[in-house]
Amino acid sequence: MISEKLQKARDYEEKYSAFITDEERPLFHLTPRIGWTNDPNGFSYYKGECHLFYQYHPYSLQWGPMHWGHAVSKDFLHWKYLPAALAPDEDYDKGGCFSGSALELPDGRQLVMYTGVRQFLCPDGSHQVIQNQCLALGDGLNYEKLPGNPVLDVKDLPKGFSVADFRDPKMMPSPEGGYDCVIGNRTDDTSGAVLLFHSEDGFTWRFVTILDRCHNEYGKMWECPDFFALGDRDILMVSPQDMSALGMEFHNGNSTMFLIGHYDRGTHKFLRETVQAVDYGLDFYAPQTMELPDGRRIMIAWMQNWDTCGGQPSEAKWFGQMTFPRELSFREGRVLQLPVREIQGFYGHKVVYSNIPVREEVTLRGVYGRTIDMTVTLKPLSNPYKQFRIKVASGSQHYTSISYCTESSTLRLSRSHSGLNRDFVHERECFVRDRGGEIKLRILLDRFSVEVFANDGEQAMSAVIYTPLTADGISFEAQGKVLMSLEKYEICLGGTLEE
Ligand code: FRU
């Protein structure tokens, strides 16, 4: 049964998304069908396609009562919009259908778990929030909320854990059979934690363990957890709120981190070894992963930052976009990420340059564009260079720069001149491995974003830009002299986002 609220959202999105042209959206990054999106939800493989749901407020460009939008893709570049999947239409989720996940059951049905939010005004004037976990079953198009909702609530929480901050369930098949689920929480020491639950059938869940908690070391509430094996490690991925900057590794505000370690399934203890930021750029939050049938672990995130949401252009018809999906791997103690290899199937015109000396600012024939995948490799000469800078989305007034400083081994992404006219953070830096001035930078440009991958994905930096599309220049310059090689492909979809 489709509720009145869900039908209203479906009618609205169908009618008004028709007014957004393909050119007003990114070429190969997913945006909401209409209105606002934040976190990716239910990122999963189901019946031969990748399903992506998303936090969705169709009626405005601001966050509002959360629905779930829905899209599918066979190749991660073409996305087909499906009708909105969930609306906040029950007593237990009146305050919103918050983030969650999806998986396929053995009988072929798709199971969705999300956080149902309720809010009350108490007699003393205070405001109370209750967050519970709820289930819905579907066929890839329509979803029915279960009569037994919520399936996890305050009675399932260990002592000292909060029911006001109990959200974002991520389910996954358990290696021992049945399913595991990690859920974010905030403990009575006011800081973040992740709780692990288990179910034999996906419907009845029980608390297993506190997988990890930060005792006020890494931010406050830990949102949007995910938990998966990668190489010989177990990775717990979280999005902490109210983080304090830590060197160049973590920035203030909403941050993201990999907690890398080993999980002992006998004792249910997660032994954390190291922590690593997920993305070092300006716009990246609430990542979620899925496993493809071929074993690849793919991650997608909201390419936005809660503190920079006010930067939307006045003529915008949608707000919020997803990163391009990334393949994760584990090497030498780090989680690496690179754009999914499917992108190679959409490579158009190719331009190659080998070992050209670069000093003062140069442009190169054939090297321009706003929808490209470009890899630049630098080789130092005997007299080392100090700095190297690439300007992309460059025009008479605008550019976004990616610069590498050999002395400090830092990579800097700056969109100060990208055309965003709000006074929030526009630059960020991170360390890259010192390889004596050698560096490989892969840059994925779409109409409204830039994603940079250093040294085969050891670091990634993402940022939204709203530079006029006529600014499609690219230039290179070095302080000192360096040899540069380059390979650039135009991305050609041969067809655009389907309605
Ligand atoms: C993260 C988040 C989640 C929550 C959702 C609400 O960005 O705050 O914790 O479920 O957004 O839209």
Describe this structure in words.
3% of the residues lie in helices and 51% in strands. The radius of gyration is 23 Å and the shape is globular. The chain has a six-stranded antiparallel sheet with strand order 22-32-23-28-29-30, with no helix packed on it. Strands 4-3-2-1-19 form a five-stranded mixed sheet. The chain folds into two domains: 4-342, 5 Propeller (Tachylectin-2, Chain A); 343-491, Exo-inulinase, domain 1 (Jelly Rolls). It contains one helix and 32 strands. A hairpin with a 4-residue loop joins β7 and β8. It is mainly beta. It binds beta-D-fructofuranose. Beta-D-fructofuranose is lined by residues 38-39, 55, 66, 98-99, 115, 167-168, 223-224, 285-286.
Write a compact overview of the structure shown:
The protein has about 500 residues and is mostly beta strands. It has one helix spanning about 5-15; strands at about 35-45, 50-55, 65-75, 80-85, 95-105, 110-120, 125-140, 145, 160-175, 180-185, 190-200, 205-215, 220-230, 235-240, 255-265, 270-275, 285-290, 295-300, 320, 325-330, 335-340, 345-360, 370-380, 385-395, 400-405, 410-415, 425-430, 440-445, 450-455, 460-465, 475-480, 480-490. The protein has 2 domains: about 5-340, Glycosyl hydrolase domain, family 43 (Tachylectin-2, Chain A), CATH 2.115.10.20; about 345-490, Exo-inulinase, domain 1 (Jelly Rolls, Sandwich).
Hetero compounds? beta-D-fructofuranose
Strand tally, please?
32
The strand line-up of the biggest sheet is: 22-32-23-28-29-30
Biggest sheet character: 6 strands, antiparallel
Report the top-level CATH class of the largest domain.
Mainly Beta
Low-confidence stretches: 495-499
Helix fraction bin: under 10%
**What would the CATH topology of the largest domain be?**
Tachylectin-2, Chain A
Number of domains: 2
Cα(first) to Cα(last) distance is 23 Å
* Strand proportion: over 45%
In CATH, what is the homologous superfamily of the largest domain? Glycosyl hydrolase domain, family 43
Structural class: mainly beta
Average of per-residue pLDDT values: 96
Number of distinct helices: 1
